[in-house]
Amino acid sequence: MSPEMLAYPFLFIAIFFESFVLVTLLSKPARVARARATGAVTPSIAVIVPCYNEETTVAGTCESLLALSYPADKLEIILVNDGSTDGTAAAISQFANHPQVRIISKENGGKHTALNAGIATTNAEFIGCLDADSFVEPDALHEIIPCFADAQIAAVTAAMSVHNPKNFLQHMQNAEYIFGITFRHAIASINGLYVTPGPFSFYRRSTINELGGFRYGHQTEDMEMALRIQQAGYGIENAPRARVYTKSPSTLGNLVKQRTRWTTGFLRNVLGEYRGLIANTRHGVLGVLILPSALVAVGSGMLLFFLMLYELTRSAVTAVSIRAGIPLSYIFMPSGPIDWFYVPINFYMLLGVTTLLASLTLIAIGKRISKTPGAIALGLVSYTFLYGLVVPLWLIRATADITFGKHRDWRSS
Amino acid sequence: MSIAARNALIALLITVALVGTIAYAMNYLDQARITELSTVEDQLSIDILSLDTQFSLLEAAPCDSNASSTTLISELSNMGDRLSYAENQLGSDNAQVIRLKEKYSLLEIRDYLITKELAAACGGAKPATVLYFYSNAGDCSDCDKAGYALSYLHNTYPTLRVYSFDYNLDLGALKTFITLNKLQRSLPAFIINGKPYYGFTSLTDLEKQFPKGALSTSTPKL
After folding, report:
1. Which pLDDT belongs to residue B73?
2. SS3 call for B192
3. N or C terminus of chain A with fewer C-beta within 10 Å?
4. d(CA A237, CA A192)
5. pLDDT tens across A213-231, in order?
6. Would you report the helix, strand and coil content of chain B in percent, each value rounded to 5?
7. Residue B137 confidence (pLDDT)
8. Nearest Cα to A175, choosing from A393, A377, A409?
9. Which of B15, B134, B141, B150 to probe by mutation at the A interface, max A CB count within 10 Å?
10. Chain B 125-184, CB below 8 Å of chain A: which residues?
11. Low-confidence residues of chain B, pLDDT below 70?
């Protein structure tokens, strides 16, 4: 059996999943969600910004919150300095006298403790979280609040993209985030979300009271909370036009660290406390399709990478071996006019191209749905050529951490 | 049926349709390649008739240098490249590929014999000729290297005539050809200007097997 045959089932699943997202995007619940009018209702809101060594970005984050189009007497901003060791305290002190801003300083205890500290000081009806390296669009709240119209909705996520992407890696992440906009919008319409990301996710206060505050959640408190909400039978919605921009890692090393944390968090939560959700029909599409697919994606990402590595190595070794002793002038001689007969197309390649084209289509749709500004061309190029090569790095690292029980520190991992 | 289940079913149908379309496209492409091979095969059939006619004409004036040159060898090479690629794509057990290989081998043998007879009749420098026997049944680890080295030699020395044969091809004429040349089953095997040579170590070693001056970049007189 050819090694390529091993990849076929996973490529089939990838195409199926992308088709599923596309079909769900076109079905009624998603269409209704897209047509949802911005809200005139203005319940009380508190946005908590946990800060740990965010001296360079926290002021901008706070200013973007203060620029939100929302009644000032209904919007409270809580900056929680979680024992920062840099100039964060000084950076946030400039907002100390602002009537909408409250500053809390505490010893470092992790993001979940910072969020809980903020929640404990407010009676707002809805609690929002915003990472201190993220910035929101002024109309974001008017997109988010109407999603809570259904009393069963416990949380609402926003539409994230990368803030001011500069290098190739950040453009790749931007495309990936915009893919995430499409994915979250479609999957939320059938209540399949399993993460409420740090940048501008909102929670119904009464649900947080009922379920308890944020937990450590294996360094992914946002995922743990979302899984707990789903386990309790509540829904998680998405506001695809509530735009939020977040800083993204600019180096491969930092990106791998961040994603290793996300992936290990996912695996430890889902295979641990929330194992009961997997294949559980009571939890609908989340249990039957989304979580199993996410687990398969971790395995298939590594398998496809190793297969590609194997094929490339084998081809390279064969090519070098065959050409040994032959003059380079012949080896690198142009092969003459292109002849369609020799176009190296095969089944495996076409399946891969189909998967990629579907991904690029979903990215383009995400950009359109969310009306995310900025050019995406470079993002599509970097996503095409880079994404498949870097994802396996954190999948392998995370899987190794899980296998060997290794726990990494949030910042220095 | 829930919306999610319905969507999953539709997505499954779309996936099957997409994968089916890809499979159909691949099959279509392979068929187009076979059609292309058939076209080349038709051209070669005309060439062999032309070669026969040419040979009859040469009986009257066998050493007319203008009349004796033939372009068949380059067409054979072109056909060989395409056949080799098609064999990789379609599989060596594909019936049409096998049939084309048989025909190709017959044409090669025929061209080899005619070239040999012309050289014998006209005297002068004998054209450098290599009969190359390979196997793609997994029992010849050096055949790819040998094939590439011969491609290089053919490209570098246009006068070199290279005839490649699949040793395992079930073709009576080829089996007789192998027997007449007293070839052992030790692949890759070469018959260089009539002398057998087995195995492939390097391009340099292979070049040493050619008679001195046999490899030339100029066109010899037949």
Report:
1. 61
2. strand
3. N
4. 9
5. 999 999 999 999 999 999 9
6. 60, 10, 30
7. 83
8. A377
9. B15
10. 144-145, 148-149, 152, 155-156
11. 40, 44, 47-48, 51-52, 54-55, 58-75, 123-125, 213-222
Q: Is B206 on the interface with A (CB under 8 A)?
A: no
- Which structure tokens are listed for A344? 């190296």
Tokens of B6: 């319905």
Q: Where are the alpha helices (DSSP H) in A44-85?
A: 58-66
A279 touches B at CB < 8 Å: no
- Stretches where chain A sits below pLDDT 70 are 1, 335-337, 410-413
SS3 content of chain A, % helix, strand, coil (to 5): 55, 15, 30
Q: Is the peptide bond before A199 cis (omega within 30 degrees of 0)?
A: no
- Residues with Cβ within 8 Å of A340's Cβ and at least 6 positions away in sequence, in order, are none
Q: Which of residues 325-364 of A touch B (CB under 8 A)?
A: 325-327, 330, 333, 341-342, 345-347, 350-351, 354
> B-contacting residues of A 25-84, CB under 8 Å?
27-29
- The pLDDT, as a whole number, for residue A264 is 96
- Relative to beta strand A45-51, strand A126-129 is parallel
pLDDT at B220: 44
Would you state the pLDDT for residue B51?
67
Cβ proximity of A155 and A237 under 8 Å? yes
Nearest to B85 among A284, A322, A342 (CB): A342
Contacts of B19 (CB under 8 A, 6+ apart): A12, A15, A351
Cβ contact A298:A271 at 8 Å: no
Q: Is A100 helix (H, G, I), strand (E, B) or coil?
A: coil
Give the pLDDT of residue B60: 67
Residue of B nearest to A331 (CA): B152
Cβ separation of A28 and B14 shorter than 8 Å? no
Q: Would you state the pLDDT for residue A11? A: 92
* pLDDT value, residue A411: 60
Cα-based distances in Å from A80 to A54, A88, A101, A221, A295: 11, 10, 11, 16, 34
Residue B159 vs residues A307, A333, B73, B117: alpha-carbon distances, Å: 43, 20, 10, 17
* Sheet containing A235-246: order of strands: A101-106, A75-82, A45-51, A126-129, A201-204, A153-162, A235-246, A134-136
For chain A, the straight-line distance linking the first and the last C-alpha, in angstroms and rounded, comes to 40
- What are the DSSP calls for A207-222, one per residue? HHHHH-S---GGG-HH
- Beta-carbon separation of B22 and A347 below 8 A: yes
| pLDDT of the residue at B46 | 77
